[in-house]
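Late entry, evening session. Most of the bench is empty. Finally got around to the prediction I had been postponing all week. Sequence below, unchanged from the version circulated by S.P.
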Amino acid sequence: MSYIANIVAYLVQYLAHIISYLFHPILIPTYAMILLIWCNPYKFGHLFYKDLVFTGDSLFILRTTVLNSIFFPLFTITLMKMLGFINNYDVKTRNERILVYIATFIYFLSTFIAFYKLSFHEAITDVMLGSTIAVGAALFITAAFMKISAHAIGVGGLLAIVLSAINLSVRDLSFVLMATILIAGIVGTCRLLVDAHEPREVYAGYMVGFICMALVFIF
């Protein structure tokens, strides 16, 4: 019986890690851009034969977001690990997270500035501005108070984006909204299962991510 329990516990831990990777905070801006392009292709992309085709501005938006919010942060983290500034890619300690947050903040901010100067739709710039502010808040809270959950910040912000996208969408986002709420709960649970955070760090992450993104879209 204990053998079976150990196998189940291992599988749960493994699944929790997989989900944590799938909804890593640096992926959230890209998911958000895809959502915006999908929910209103007439503003951000083109729609042919009921299939989304990324062309023109939408392709540039996605390419820039992927490079600046995924590729460059990962490249920087890899360099940090090679140089000994961080021990592993999980970045578990507060001091290591501060370094990663600083680099991520710079990349997110540069992406926002680029989108703003190119006069893209305000929803596009709002995503990157909200993400930048959220990373800045995570940096401050981690340095001053506690190791807040970046995953919870990410999914909290994504929920705010989905709620804001309802007013822009030509599609029914009810299922997307319910799925996002479910995903947010699952991601937070996974962070607790892998002992990455305490409950208060996850709850704080939800609030910070949602508030930072919601305020940007509102004002």
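Two things to note before I forget:
The chain is about 75% helix and 5% strand.
The longest strand covers residues 46-48.
Will write this up properly tomorrow.
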